[in-house]
Amino acid sequence: MSRTNGFIGRRDFLKLGGGAMVALSSSLMQVPNAFAQESLQPISPALALQELVEGNKRFVEDKRRSPHQSLLRLAQIATEQHPFASILSCADSRVPAEMVFDVGLGDLFVVRIAGNVVSPRVMGSLEYSTKILGSQLILILGHERCGAVTAAVDNTIVEGEIGTFVEDIKPAVARVKNIDGDRMDNAVIANVQYQLEVLNKSKLLTQLVSEGNLQLMGGRYDLDTGEVTII
Question: Which pTM does this prediction carry?
Answer without folding.
Answer: 0.82
